[in-house]
Amino acid sequence: MALPEEEGNLLRAPTDQKYVTLERQPSSYKPLETFVLEKEKHYQQQYGDMYFLRLTKLKPAVEKIAEETWDGFQIAGETVRKVDRVLDVRQGELCWVAGTIYMEMPLKPNILDDISKDHWISAPPPRQKYLSPNGGDLIMLEDESGRLRLVGTPLANEMLVTGCIIAVMGTENANGDFEVVDIKVPDLPPQAERWHTSSPPTNGTSRKKIKLDNDEDEDMDKPSAAGKKIAIVSGLGFSGTNTEHSLEINLLMEYLLGEALDLATQENVSRISRLIIAGNSIALDNEAVSHDTIGNTRKAHKKYGYDSSAYNPAPTAHLDNFLAALLPSMPITLIPGYTDPANVSLPQQPIHPAMFPQARTFGPMPPADGQPKEAGWFDTVTNPWDGEIEGWKVLGTGGQNVDDVFKYVESEDRLGMLEAMCRWRCCAPTAPDTLWSYPFQDDDPFVINSCPHLFFAGSQPKFDTASIEGPDGQEVRLIAVPRFTETGEIVLVDSETLEASVVRISVS
Amino acid sequence: MMDYKMYLASTILTEDKVITYRLLSRALKVHVNVAKEMLYDFHQKQNAKKPGTIHATYLLSGAKRPEDTIPLNGDAKKDGEDDYMLSSPFMSSSMPQLEEGTGESSVLSITLVREEDLEEVRSQYEDISSIHIYSLEPHPLKDLQVLSDATRELQLLTADEDPLKTAEQYGTIINKNVKRRTARRPPPAVVAPATSTSKASAPSTSKAQAPAPAVKPKAEPKTQPSTANDFFGKSKEKSKVTTTAAGSNASSKESTPAPGPATLKKESSSIFKSFAKAKPKLKREETDSSVVENSPMRDVDDEDEEETYVPPVQSKEIVESDRKARKEREENLIRMMEKAEETEAMEVAEKPEKEVTKKEQSVEPEKETAVVSGGRRRGRRRVMKKKTVKDAEGYLGMSLLVPLP
């Protein structure tokens, strides 16, 4: 049995030791408003425009890559030729073409099924995967001219979902299907260096740079000691009916406040400069609304005021208490998730601060005249959300995008899906097909224009992290953030190396 | 420094409470780390004196041994919960999965453990970086989740403190850059006790109100002689009231089905009938009929009474004759309305007076309704039978029953 060191052991009688006040490291933070919708939203538009916006934005990128790789490529003496439109592909001719993938899947939710639902006795439970076991799925490539069915072995090796933009090389066979020889994706978008738009704090980093030049040895251990951390937690799952995890959440709060554990740990905690809550802070309480035996919500006979049997304020009150306890000590970014009280369709808009009567006092100040709007200490943001933290471009979601891609593909590898999304340059490719989305008309904000340094998705079954590299030296740290209610885990990201570590809280 | 022993002894041993290091630090206004040491010291000394009197939970952190990969909660299927349908049999083929980079990242495990299980949990750790007592309790805790109540208790304890100012005292990590709006609303934690005080003050205000009406009739007995008489007379003998009520019920022209479980309000409305017959001679018939029809309706809820009271101005124009009497009644009414808001305890004592209130109140609107639609309604309504029913939860309600032939 390993005995704790002297300093970490608080199993001793009170001493006269004076404890120094720990001060938290400042957080450099600049949120971007890429996914903020206008106040006035219109829903009359057709969704089809989103695909064409995406295609026009990404087609040049994927064509450039395809051209570089396939230029002068020959099979049996025939040189590959570029075709502009899907319908211009001629039978037996070796060519390549770019377009949007469309997955025709019999098990995919269909609006017509919703109509026929009226005739079901009870609806089948939602499917975990849309893939049909007997190979009923068709992969098609479409653009503004038409669709082309894709066949061939390379398709099995590549992760493909509806809405991603790719280029394929091959020939059309006698059946009219396109035999794929090779596939190219747009790959990672250009990446700006650190501190691109926000400026680094003047004292901290500049001092370190000098150290870097002067003394290599000293630098070896310094960055780890001086490095700040960003804490990411997801799936806190505050519930009105289930208090199973309240102690774990309390322990998390005590840990983040620097009250739990010993002085060394408290010093480490003081380097956590910001907490990001990545979705699903409120649990889905089906029991909250009373149902009668047939399943209809019971209408209580009330004249006015809200009906306490249909609405349970406890979960948000608990979340508010949690936030209000942490906010005096650390800034918080709150990203909504699937179960949170925000709109369902992506991009989810910020949870209204009025839900948090205590925490909202830390919200953004009303901007003074002529001053730019400043981000609040307590920042409730969109999902997906992007911004700059400690100079790094960060893109994060509540996890719906990964969960939806998961339904299309055979793989269980959540990181692989995150990676694929980066390489497709689209953080929610399945919107608007199977992922609910706002019908964008002028711009598809899900297209990743500039490569993030850190890309995370909340509410994943388990923690996972990896670093991927792009063709031009881009580097992206991918993190699958686990659900706290299930794992008791939070992720700490180092602000210098972007390496992720885990703190696991458990009650035995 | 010594008083913490006194405090802990009284809280844990005498009051039989669970105390965590955070509660102790807030109660004694000491640093959390000192509070942890105090808990340890007290635990040691107390159990040295009398073993087993105090039980502890420990919080420890460090690196766990790699081999014990704890089954996560998520892996265990919850009972009775619908699982997702797996449509594809090929899942198994893809199961051998690449572990990408998970191994190398460090994991700090924090575990809260009972004293009894401490050794077992300790053995799971490869390296324990810190350990301290989390809480002390007089009995071993069956479910550690009860410790989360301490946080709630703590919120109440520190409700009136500004966390930005007290953080330093308790050893919470402070943040210089915190931005908070100056115009700060009182947090609900403060509101909660506030409402309880308002509840406490409610009876006191009602007490303040209560003597006032009691005094009033004495102060001006000449202006309202009848009411005052009623008040005092009826309060003396309640039984008389009920008998008169029953009598008036029987004597009423309309064949009102006398409800068996008549409430106080119901009663009062029937009393009113006798009154109504006696008092305003004007449009008697319609008044009478509408009494039967309308006054029980009003009984359903009190808010209607307030609403119906409003338009006496109109009725003044219609009924010019007894303006003076009306004024008196209005004064009466206002006073009675105030009384109506009083607590239930007062209600018992004021029973007779309230009945008068009901009488007076129902006089007002029923004249108007009589003018507007009294005649037509009567014919249609009469076929319905009304009954006061008591439902499972003990609420009284009206139900219209079998139409009479």
What keyword list fits this structure?
heterodimer, A: 508 residues, alpha/beta, Purple Acid Phosphatase, chain A, domain 2, OB fold (Dihydrolipoamide Acetyltransferase, E2P), 6-stranded mixed sheet, 11 helices, disordered N terminus, B: 405 residues, alpha+beta, 50s Ribosomal Protein L17, Chain: A, two-stranded antiparallel ribbon, 18 helices, 55% helix, DNA-directed DNA polymerase (chain A), DNA binding (chain A)
Topology:
The complex is a heterodimer of chains A (508) and B (405).
Chain A: E1 29-31, H1 48-70, E2 74-75, E3 78-79, E4 81-82, E5 95-104, H2 111-116, E6 138-142, E7 147-151, H3 154-157, E8 165-172, E9 178-184, H4 202-214, H5 216-226, E10 229-233, H6 246-257, H7 263-269, E11 272-278, H8 314-326, E12 332-335, E13 378-380, E14 385-389, E15 392-397, H9 400-408, H10 414-424, E16 454-460, E17 464-469, E18 475-482, H11 484-487, E19 489-494, E20 500-507
Parallel strand pairs in A: 4-5, 7-9, 10-11, 11-12, 12-13, 15-16, 16-18
Antiparallel strand pairs in A: 1-14, 2-3, 5-6, 5-8, 6-7, 8-9, 10-19, 14-15, 17-18, 19-20
Helix pairs in contact in A: 4-5
Chain B: H1 3-14, E1 19-20, H2 21-28, H3 32-49, E2 55-64, H4 91-94, E3 107-114, H5 118-124, E4 125-137, H6 148-157, H7 163-170, H8 188-209, H9 211-219, H10 225-236, H11 238-251, H12 264-278, H13 284-299, H14 303-309, H15 312-318, H16 323-340, H17 344-349, H18 351-381, E5 385-390, E6 396-401
Helix pairs in contact in B: 2-3, 2-6, 10-18, 11-12, 12-13, 12-18, 13-18, 16-18
